[in-house]
Design goal:
With about 220 residues, the chain is an alpha/beta fold. The protein contains 9 helices and 7 strands.
């Protein structure tokens, strides 16, 4: 049995759940639409270029959750899943997850998107283990502040190593599937790195390193 690790956004999903959550908040009138949309675009551009300030972004992304009762957040997320996420779940991604299940591998999603957004998505994909950026919760409510080590860039390696130690697991023979050059720190430490529908920088690196490059979107109508 090996560890099969998956990035989420633009890997198992045909889009970015973090960015789409921002769109959803604007469409629902839950934030100052024009300002929030502009900041959402700016941070997403920084992410794609490799210049994201992850703590600044997390404070931005977690801000709308601040002080909201859990029942309200759950209702928001149900509609978000229905409208934004369900259409983006890639059938070939589900097949890849099933392939590793049949092999008896331990499945793990590791993502820089916060856990409020991604835990229900991981559940929908049938993956119990999730490492995501965490938001601080005090007295059952989000404060809008990040908590712990963000699972972004080299932070994914830190979080994974902590998880491996906690669970008595091993990285021997581990797989990691990702679309983004931001994940190079983790791709470079696993035995089986795989570039999935990669951005240009990751594709160039993967081809030079001789890593497999695959697509999970070939038969996807999106």
């Amino acid at each position: 049995m090996s560890l099969a690790i998956f990035d989420l956004d633009n890997t198992l999903l045909g889009g970015d759940s973090d960015y789409l959550w921002g769109e959803f908040l604007c469409e629902e009138g839950l934030v100052d639409g024009a300002h929030f949309a502009a900041e959402n675009e700016r941070f997403y551009s920084d992410y794609k270029s490799g210049n994201l300030d992850i703590l600044a972004y997390l404070r931005f992304a977690l801000g709308p959750l601040r002080g909201q009762p859990p029942a309200v957040l759950e209702a928001w997320h149900r509609e978000f899943m229905r409208r934004k996420i369900a259409p983006l779940i890639l059938p070939e991604g589900l097949e890849l997850l099933d392939k590793h299940r049949r092999l008896g591998d331990q499945l793990l999603i590791i993502t820089a998107t916060n856990a409020f957004i991604t835990r229900p998505i991981a559940t929908a994909l049938g993956v119990a283990e999730l490492l995501a950026c965490e938001g601080e919760i005090v007295d059952g409510l989000y404060t809008g502040e990040p908590a712990g080590v963000p699972s972004f860039g080299a932070g994914k390696v830190t979080r994974l190593n902590d998880w491996v130690a906690l669970h008595g697991a091993s990285l021997d023979g581990a797989w990691f599937y990702s679309d983004s050059h931001n994940d190079l720190p983790l791709l470079e430490v696993v035995d089986n790195p795989v570039a999935v529908d990669p951005d240009e920088r990751l594709r160039a690196h993967a081809e030079q390193a001789g890593w497999p490059v695959i697509s999970l979107r070939e038969n996807w109508p999106g």
